[in-house]
User: What shape does this take?
Amino acid sequence: MTATPAIASRISRRFAELRASGEMGIVAYITAGDPTLAATLKFVLALAEAGADVIELGVPFSDPLADGPTIQRASERALKSGATLNGVLDLVRDIRKSSQVPLVLFSYYNPIFQMGLEKFASAASSAGADGVLVTDLTPEEADDYLRIMRSHQLDTIFLAAPTSDDERLQKISAASSGFLYLISRTGVTGAKDALPDDLPALLRRTRQFANLPVAVGFGISLPGHVSVLGGLADAAVVGSALVSEIEKATAQDSAPRAIEHAAGALSAKISGLKEAARAGLSRRDSSAKHEVAP
Assistant: This one.
């Protein structure tokens, strides 16, 4: 498999800006349509305003095997409210009226397959999406998908895992553009108290094969997690912790006041994580200077 040609997308430009300024990015995931697509629009704009560097819009699916209970419940709520892939594409169009934040459509393959690869790629690109991450599509089965997404200038983001051997990391890196999503641990999504001890070694091994930014996700929920990743990863992906804030604020009441409360909680979460990222990089830079001092 040949390496994915570079696409001058909002995603690649944002990571270039982060690299130039010596910052680590925050990739924010929320489930589109939880509790409504109109509410998701408010959440995305709040996340972008607070400093989220890339936003992943989860396409709700009835059988989300890779997701933990928090995101499973969000998908159930979104489907109950009538969210569909077409509705999520309309949401992207609405977001583009107010924001140029990089947007990734995060989906299982079934909804995309049902729509048709060409129709989906054309609609996603014209709506203003920047990339697509299909959780259950492997590089070995993605030739048609890669060809069609590339033809519509959409970044193709693939997942790498602790169980990926060197040969597989090469394949995943070759198929990916925008960034490579590195899963920090085995299992499903969900907030955890601590990051795996072997994560730094996994990141170093991944970088031997990845010629693009590496974002670490699964279990990233606390400022301390983000601080630890400073100087190691190009970005931290935060999902369940954000979805949990939405659930707490709106599961029992989706009135406008509850939506505003959830948007405020998301903003505060992103602001705290961005500050933790800066603090982690500052500490790592300070340590490096002490190590080389005479």
